[in-house]
Amino acid sequence: MDNTTERFDDFLFVTQDTATMANPLEIKTASPFKDLFPVKQTDLEHVMASMKAKGYDNGHPIILWEGHDLTVIDGHTRLTAAQKLLFARIPVILKKFKDEAEALEYAIESQVNRRNLTDAELLKCLTELDKRKKTGPAKSLASREAKLGKSAEETASILGVSRAKVERLRTVNDHASDEIKDAVKDGKLSLNKAYKATMDARHAEECSDEADPVDTKADRLLALENSYCCALTARTDRELKQYPEIRYSAKELAALRKKIVEKLDAELNRFRGNN
Question: Does the pLDDT at position 260 exceed 70?
Fold first, then answer.
């Protein structure tokens, strides 16, 4: 490996992915990397206390994006601590990324390798990742569903969560109200509760018959029929979209139908009158 070095102002670094030293006051931060995982005061105080007692741990260099104004990709808390403690030099690594999407994936995976991300962090990360997805037009419904499935699997791997959780995150990100999304990002609402609230709202919107009030028995029966059918179709569409690779045997579907019919009969009997 060629370790040819170059000097620019106050920096001395090598042109390969190799650790070297840099002045922390000259290192820059930028969006979206600095926004994904904001520096928490408690974490900062802990890192500063450790640095005061032991110095900077050279085993944890700051990761910078080579050729992009030495922007921090990973290590914002460590950098802030070093700046506040006025360290003259800290270890850094200059890495090459083909584009912002690749750098973003690296930043997220670095965090995932150290800890479990919160729902708020997961939603922020998914939002940024999906902004940079390169998706072309699908030739068929099957290919579109396959592409969605592949995207969910890839994103799940980056975030360190299940594919099902990625689908819930995407549902909230794509369909939830701004109020619900802000509540998740602020840590005030869990993903599961946000997902349920979003799906309930979508179902109510799709199946609402309040815009056309009806009074006769025939009209009410028609409204009930439309509402039940709408709910069934919406649930089937959601299942096919989220799990396009899963199909069931005739025996499994017959058992499911029997249970649904039994439940439907029980619900319809609540409307039964004397005539």
Answer: yes
